[in-house]
Please model this.
Amino acid sequence: MSTKQIRKIERGNRITVVDETTGLSGEGDTYSDALVNLIEHLRASEKLRQQLSDIDELAEQAARIEDVAEEIDDIHETATLVSQLQDMESTARFIRLASETQERFEDEEIDKDVVDEAIEWARSE
Model:
């Protein structure tokens, strides 16, 4: 930082120095004290800039995490739909098999009592 960028203002016994580049200032009883105070303000300003940068980075990370969470929700929803579709396919196969069996019984004129007896026999074996 060159002295061309620092403006010195004297008010009574107090001296203020202003960094023309940043607009930050420091005060003191002497020029040295004012410069030390300005340096402290510049350091605090740089620390604040770093903290803001860190906060921006955290906000970006949070946004990425939120995107991943939405993708996980989409995957979960898709998995649920696939499971429901598989259940529906199983139910459809069962209904088709039951219908085919019923038709076969009707075509072959098999009595309900005969079916009941066959079930009893199968259970006993």
The longest strand covers residues 6-11. The CA atoms of residues 86 and 92 lie 10 Å apart.
